[in-house]
Amino acid sequence: MLKFNLQICVIMLTTLLQCGSIDKYEDYLNYSIELDRLMDSLKVDKKKLRILIDKSEYKLTLYSEDVRVKEYPVVFGGDPVGDKLMEGDERTPEGVFSIRGFYPHKSWSKFIWIDYPTQDSWKKHKQAKKEGLIPETAKIGGEIGIHGVPAGYDHAIDYKMNWTLGCVSLKNKDVNEIYKYIYEGMPVKIVT
Protein backbone atom coordinates (compact mmCIF):
# COMPACT_ATOMS: atom_id res chain seq x y z
CA MET A 1 0.00 0.00 0.00
CA LEU A 2 2.82 2.39 0.89
CA LYS A 3 4.51 1.65 -2.45
CA PHE A 4 1.24 2.38 -4.30
CA ASN A 5 0.73 5.69 -2.44
CA LEU A 6 4.32 6.67 -3.17
CA GLN A 7 3.80 5.95 -6.88
CA ILE A 8 0.63 8.08 -6.89
CA CYS A 9 2.53 10.93 -5.19
CA VAL A 10 5.36 10.72 -7.76
CA ILE A 11 2.86 10.77 -10.65
CA MET A 12 1.00 13.75 -9.16
CA LEU A 13 4.24 15.65 -8.49
CA THR A 14 5.49 14.98 -12.02
CA THR A 15 2.19 16.20 -13.46
CA LEU A 16 2.29 19.37 -11.35
CA LEU A 17 5.87 20.11 -12.36
CA GLN A 18 5.00 19.66 -16.02
CA CYS A 19 2.06 22.05 -15.65
CA GLY A 20 4.33 24.62 -14.05
CA SER A 21 6.79 24.39 -16.90
CA ILE A 22 4.21 25.22 -19.56
CA ASP A 23 4.97 28.62 -21.02
CA LYS A 24 2.21 30.85 -19.65
CA TYR A 25 2.97 33.32 -22.43
CA GLU A 26 2.74 30.90 -25.34
CA ASP A 27 -0.16 32.96 -26.73
CA TYR A 28 2.07 36.04 -26.94
CA LEU A 29 3.62 36.33 -30.40
CA ASN A 30 7.39 35.73 -30.38
CA TYR A 31 7.61 36.28 -26.61
CA SER A 32 10.35 33.66 -26.20
CA ILE A 33 12.46 35.14 -29.03
CA GLU A 34 14.88 38.01 -28.34
CA LEU A 35 13.74 41.28 -29.89
CA ASP A 36 17.20 41.99 -31.35
CA ARG A 37 17.02 38.70 -33.27
CA LEU A 38 13.53 39.49 -34.54
CA MET A 39 14.52 42.99 -35.62
CA ASP A 40 17.50 41.60 -37.55
CA SER A 41 15.60 38.74 -39.17
CA LEU A 42 12.64 40.93 -40.16
CA LYS A 43 14.94 43.80 -41.24
CA VAL A 44 12.79 46.25 -39.32
CA ASP A 45 13.37 50.00 -39.58
CA LYS A 46 13.32 51.29 -36.00
CA LYS A 47 11.63 54.52 -37.10
CA LYS A 48 8.64 52.55 -38.42
CA LEU A 49 7.91 50.89 -35.08
CA ARG A 50 4.71 51.62 -33.17
CA ILE A 51 3.06 50.27 -30.03
CA LEU A 52 -0.47 48.98 -29.53
CA ILE A 53 -1.59 48.33 -25.95
CA ASP A 54 -4.77 46.30 -25.50
CA LYS A 55 -6.14 46.66 -21.97
CA SER A 56 -8.63 43.80 -22.27
CA GLU A 57 -5.90 41.43 -23.51
CA TYR A 58 -3.22 42.64 -21.03
CA LYS A 59 -0.91 42.89 -24.03
CA LEU A 60 1.59 45.33 -25.54
CA THR A 61 2.26 44.63 -29.22
CA LEU A 62 5.24 46.07 -31.03
CA TYR A 63 4.46 46.65 -34.71
CA SER A 64 6.60 47.51 -37.70
CA GLU A 65 4.12 49.29 -39.93
CA ASP A 66 1.31 46.67 -40.06
CA VAL A 67 3.41 43.63 -39.13
CA ARG A 68 3.28 42.36 -35.55
CA VAL A 69 6.86 41.91 -34.35
CA LYS A 70 6.45 40.82 -30.72
CA GLU A 71 3.89 40.81 -27.89
CA TYR A 72 4.50 41.38 -24.18
CA PRO A 73 2.34 40.84 -21.07
CA VAL A 74 1.46 44.06 -19.21
CA VAL A 75 -0.66 45.37 -16.34
CA PHE A 76 -2.31 48.70 -15.70
CA GLY A 77 -3.70 51.07 -13.11
CA GLY A 78 -5.59 49.69 -10.13
CA ASP A 79 -8.95 50.37 -11.83
CA PRO A 80 -8.23 49.36 -15.43
CA VAL A 81 -11.78 49.33 -16.81
CA GLY A 82 -12.62 52.53 -18.65
CA ASP A 83 -10.68 55.56 -19.80
CA LYS A 84 -8.68 57.85 -17.52
CA LEU A 85 -10.79 60.92 -16.78
CA MET A 86 -8.94 62.51 -13.87
CA GLU A 87 -5.89 62.38 -11.66
CA GLY A 88 -6.19 59.71 -8.99
CA ASP A 89 -8.78 57.50 -10.72
CA GLU A 90 -6.11 54.77 -11.18
CA ARG A 91 -7.17 54.25 -14.79
CA THR A 92 -4.91 53.92 -17.80
CA PRO A 93 -5.78 56.42 -20.54
CA GLU A 94 -7.16 55.24 -23.87
CA GLY A 95 -6.49 56.85 -27.21
CA VAL A 96 -3.68 57.76 -29.57
CA PHE A 97 -0.48 59.09 -28.03
CA SER A 98 3.21 59.38 -28.80
CA ILE A 99 6.43 58.98 -26.85
CA ARG A 100 7.58 62.32 -25.44
CA GLY A 101 10.68 61.07 -23.63
CA PHE A 102 12.35 58.08 -22.00
CA TYR A 103 14.93 57.57 -19.30
CA PRO A 104 16.32 55.11 -16.73
CA HIS A 105 14.23 55.01 -13.56
CA LYS A 106 15.50 54.09 -10.08
CA SER A 107 12.34 52.21 -9.07
CA TRP A 108 11.03 50.71 -12.34
CA SER A 109 14.17 50.15 -14.44
CA LYS A 110 13.06 52.37 -17.35
CA PHE A 111 10.34 54.98 -17.89
CA ILE A 112 8.87 55.63 -21.34
CA TRP A 113 6.81 58.80 -21.05
CA ILE A 114 3.73 59.22 -23.25
CA ASP A 115 2.21 62.59 -24.13
CA TYR A 116 -0.90 62.25 -21.95
CA PRO A 117 -2.94 64.42 -21.69
CA THR A 118 -3.60 65.08 -25.37
CA GLN A 119 -6.23 67.47 -26.76
CA ASP A 120 -8.60 64.50 -26.96
CA SER A 121 -7.87 63.66 -23.30
CA TRP A 122 -8.74 67.24 -22.33
CA LYS A 123 -12.03 67.04 -24.26
CA LYS A 124 -13.02 63.84 -22.45
CA HIS A 125 -11.99 65.34 -19.09
CA LYS A 126 -14.06 68.50 -19.63
CA GLN A 127 -17.04 66.49 -20.89
CA ALA A 128 -16.89 64.24 -17.80
CA LYS A 129 -16.99 67.35 -15.59
CA LYS A 130 -19.92 68.74 -17.58
CA GLU A 131 -21.83 65.46 -17.18
CA GLY A 132 -21.06 65.28 -13.46
CA LEU A 133 -19.01 62.10 -13.81
CA ILE A 134 -16.06 63.68 -12.00
CA PRO A 135 -15.84 66.61 -9.55
CA GLU A 136 -15.61 70.16 -10.96
CA THR A 137 -12.30 70.54 -9.10
CA ALA A 138 -10.78 67.36 -10.57
CA LYS A 139 -7.41 67.68 -12.29
CA ILE A 140 -6.60 65.72 -15.42
CA GLY A 141 -3.30 64.26 -14.20
CA GLY A 142 -0.19 63.41 -16.16
CA GLU A 143 3.13 61.59 -15.90
CA ILE A 144 1.68 58.54 -17.65
CA GLY A 145 4.13 56.11 -19.15
CA ILE A 146 5.29 52.58 -19.80
CA HIS A 147 7.70 51.17 -17.22
CA GLY A 148 8.99 48.12 -15.40
CA VAL A 149 8.24 46.86 -11.89
CA PRO A 150 10.09 47.26 -8.60
CA ALA A 151 12.97 44.74 -8.44
CA GLY A 152 11.70 41.25 -7.68
CA TYR A 153 8.06 41.98 -8.55
CA ASP A 154 7.74 40.36 -11.99
CA HIS A 155 4.97 38.22 -10.46
CA ALA A 156 2.74 41.32 -10.62
CA ILE A 157 2.79 40.84 -14.39
CA ASP A 158 2.50 37.04 -14.19
CA TYR A 159 -0.67 37.29 -12.10
CA LYS A 160 -2.13 40.36 -13.86
CA MET A 161 -2.00 42.43 -10.68
CA ASN A 162 -2.99 45.96 -11.75
CA TRP A 163 -0.88 48.07 -9.41
CA THR A 164 0.06 51.35 -11.09
CA LEU A 165 -1.65 54.73 -10.76
CA GLY A 166 -2.46 54.67 -14.49
CA CYS A 167 0.76 53.67 -16.21
CA VAL A 168 1.42 50.51 -18.22
CA SER A 169 3.85 48.12 -16.52
CA LEU A 170 5.98 45.32 -18.02
CA LYS A 171 8.53 42.95 -16.53
CA ASN A 172 11.90 44.69 -16.21
CA LYS A 173 13.56 42.39 -18.76
CA ASP A 174 10.81 43.31 -21.23
CA VAL A 175 10.96 47.08 -20.73
CA ASN A 176 14.75 46.85 -21.01
CA GLU A 177 14.40 44.89 -24.25
CA ILE A 178 12.11 47.41 -25.98
CA TYR A 179 13.85 50.48 -24.51
CA LYS A 180 16.62 50.70 -27.11
CA TYR A 181 14.02 50.72 -29.89
CA ILE A 182 11.97 53.56 -28.42
CA TYR A 183 12.20 56.99 -30.04
CA GLU A 184 10.58 60.36 -29.39
CA GLY A 185 7.39 60.69 -31.39
CA MET A 186 6.87 56.93 -31.57
CA PRO A 187 3.11 56.23 -31.95
CA VAL A 188 1.34 54.53 -29.04
CA LYS A 189 -2.30 53.50 -29.18
CA ILE A 190 -4.12 52.26 -26.05
CA VAL A 191 -7.43 50.45 -26.55
CA THR A 192 -9.94 48.53 -24.44
UniProtKB/TrEMBL annotation:
UniProt keyword list: Cell shape, Cell wall biogenesis/degradation, Peptidoglycan synthesis, Transferase
Domain named L,D-TPase catalytic: residues: 49-191
Any GO MF annotation of the entry: carboxypeptidase activity
PROSITE patterns: LD_TPASE
Pathway: Cell wall biogenesis; peptidoglycan biosynthesis
GO biological process: cell wall organization; peptidoglycan biosynthetic process; regulation of cell shape
The keyword Protein biosynthesis belongs to this UniProt entry's keyword annotation: no
Active site residues of this protein: H147, C167
Gene3D superfamilies: L,D-transpeptidase catalytic domain-like
PANTHER family named in the record: L,D-TRANSPEPTIDASE YAFK-RELATED, LD-TRANSPEPTIDASE
Sequence similarity: Belongs to the YkuD family.
Stated name of the protein: L,D-transpeptidase
Source organism: Fulvivirga marina
